[in-house]
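Our collaborator T.R. sent over the components below with a one-line note: 'Predict the complex.' Nothing else. No constraints on interfaces, no templates requested, no preferences about which chain binds where. So this is a plain run: every listed entity goes in together, and whatever single assembly comes back becomes the starting point for the next discussion.
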Amino acid sequence: MFRLDVSMAVFLYVMSSLVIIFFLWIFFERKAALPQFVREEADVWECTICAYTYVDSTHHEISQCPQCKSYNKKLPEERLV
Ligand SMILES: [Zn+2]
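Returned assembly:
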């Protein structure tokens, strides 16, 4: 049997606890699903007056341009590309 002083015992106890916590962390983190950040294309507006492109998710039909303050109707989807 090998000799074990107090500092070595504390060191082994702390290190084994940290290793167990680390592997538990890795195990549960692999299960967690990361949130998907999907931006809707409908939120992107292009001003018909000043051609400023901005994002407005609060309005769906008519939005006000933050740069020139003019109102814009929703453009067809193919013109936003
Ligand atoms: Zn504008």
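Summary for T.R.: The CA atoms of residues 32 and 43 lie 29 Å apart.
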